[in-house]
Structure formats: structure tokens, C-alpha cells
Amino acid sequence: MLLAAATLPLLGCGIRFESDAPGFLPTPSPDPAGPPILAERDRVARILETLPEAPGVATQVRSVHTAQLRALDATLGALDPPLSPSAPARAGGKTPAAPGGGDALVAVADLEADGLDEAGLAALDGIVPRAAAIVVASHAQRAVLLELLAAAGTAVAPAARTPWHAASPAIARALVDDLRATAYGVEVAAAHLPPGPRGTVLAGLGVLRDAESRLGALVPDLPPRPLGYRLPRPVTNPREAVLLATGVLDRFVAATLAAAPTTADARRTTRPATQDEPGDDTRADVASPAATAGSDGSGDAGATTTDATTPPGDDAATLVRLVRIAELTRVRCGGPLRPLPGLRPPATPSPTASPPPRT
User: Biased-composition ranges for Low complexity (predicted)?
Assistant: First the structure.
């Protein structure tokens, strides 16, 4: 009787309870950072599926990509709402070709190159700032590994030559300042190395100086390069020289990747500064310092972007390019091959470390 009495007023008001009535809680909107991260995650997953179980460079590439995949998965899980790697809305990409003749690394190199052409790099300028850090880092990681696969004898197309761009003069100035300090450390390190390793380091220094010059052209009233910088460590022998060179290059890579969200945000409010003479740092970045002849600078043809106020550019591509130059130089200077900053697993404290003092 009580249920019937409560139902009658509701019927009189025209309220009906139906099984297909919409829910009272709204469905959360998808995070716009999700699709570009998911697309990059799928690229890395396809590479891991294609990598052969073989010693040598394949083992090194697998180790780096495994950490890279975990970092991308963790970022997807931290979105609001979280996005599963098995969710739909994946962007298109190359399907791994079945390796033939035992040359599986050729198929791996083809997958590494996916999205690293001019149009693919220019499209990075359209992603939201929240996705920029890890997506740019992941593209740069694949660009580095692509070069190392080429050095191992895998036939791949040269990396894209894109113009030097910066989303604002302030970003260009920060990159130039970091480049100058890094190049100074590399130069000091080279002076303490024997002739063979010194040539490799000086080749990398030449590429860094060329990048500094081209980015410096984007900065109004750029002051002259300082005569010196404070070094992070003393250098008196070849071992310390290698530690100095690899250390300053690693810090430069981290600082450059940290500029990705700022670059993505600046593109939404400012028109990018450009320097349309890209130079030639492709392929053997630290093997031919004199190879600085320019290309036609048409690196953004066919690109698309979600930003309607700023035309497609190569701001993110410049970050990828700088990271590729510095990381390859670091490895060739004697640094270990490892995931880039932002893609590394979190550091775990040593079990033998002493506890902090009590206060």
C-alpha cells in the first residue's frame, strides 16, 4: 500500500521509470592527451613485437623500448579518465611487415622511422601540452635508435631534414643558452682525450655549434657567447673527460625535452619564429662535422595540426632534432645506451644506503 501511494503522485507528474532511461551521472569526456600518447604507444608495441630474439643491437633496442612502453602505459593510466592500451581510437600507423631472409632488423628500422618524416614531425606541433613531453621524448628515442640501427648495417632512409623553428624567441634563447654551456663542456672534455676519441667528440661539438648558430639566428639581440662556463666536475684525465662530456650532454637532453610542454603551449598564443635553412646534421651527426650544407627547408609540407591559430611548423621537430644530436654524441663519447629522460624507470634506492639522519 505504501509503495502504491508513493507511485501515484509520480505517475500524475508524468515521470516514468524505463529501463533505457539515460544515467544520472554524465560520462567523462576523453582526455585530448590520450590519442597521441596511445598512437605512440602502439608504435613502440609494434616494434617490440617485431624485434628478433638476437644478441647485439637488438637486445639493446629491446631494453630501451621496454622501458619506453612502460612509461607510455603509466602516462595513459594517469589520464583523467585513464586510458587503456587496448582502448579504441588508435591513430593509423604502419603494420609490421613479416621479416624475410632473417633480416628482421630491416622491418624494425622501418617501424622506428614511422612518424619521423617531415609531415609526422610537423604534426607534433598540434598535440596538447599535457601529451607533448612524453610524445616528443618517445619520437626522439626512436630517432636515436634508428640511427644506431643504421650504424649496425640496417639500410634505412635518412632522418628528415626539418627547418630550425622555435615557438617564441624566449624558447629559442633558452635552447641557445643550454647549447652554449653544453658545447663548452664538450670542448673542454675533448682537450683531455687522446687523438682517436677526441676526433669523435670534436665532430659532435661541430654539430652542436652549428645548431647553436642556426637557433641563435631566431633570437633578437643575442649577446655574444661567454668565454667560459662553470663546469659541473673537474677534468684532469681521459676518464673524467668522458664523464664530463656525457654528463653535460645528458643534462642538455633533459632540459630540451622539458621544453616540450612550454613549446606546445606557446604555439597556441604566438606565431613561431623560424630559420628556414636547416643545415645537414642528418645520419652521421658526429661523424662529419663539416657537412653543414643546407637543404631546401621545405620540411613542413603536408602536415596537419589541431591549432587553428598558428600554421604548422617544426617547433617540436627542432626539439627532437636537438635531442637526437646530443644523445648520439653522448653515446659515441662513451655513454651507455639507455632510455631518454622521461622514459626511464623510477630510480630505486640502494638497499645498502644509509638512512637519513633523524632531526
Answer: 301-315
Instruction: Give the range among 196-200, 262-266, 355-359 with minimum mean pLDDT.
Output: 355-359
Selection from 100, 101, 114, 119 nearest residue 46 by Cα:
114
Contact between residue 145 and residue 64 where contact means Cβ atoms under 8 Å apart: yes
Cell of 56: 647485439
Please check the confidence at residue 345 and state whether its pLDDT lies above 50. yes
Say which DSSP state 343 is in.
S
Going by their DSSP bridges, the two strands 164-166 and 273-275 should be labelled as antiparallel
- At 61, give phi and psi (nearest 5°): -65, -40
pLDDT tens profile 125-184: 889 999 999 999 999 999 999 998 888 776 565 556 677 888 888 899 999 999 999 999
Looking at the chain, the number of H-run helices and the number of E-run strands are 11, 2
Per-domain boundaries in the chain: 33-90+104-294+310-332
193, 324, 347, 66 alpha-carbon torsion, rounded to 10°: -120
The answer to whether 253 and 327 have CB atoms below 8 angstroms apart is: yes
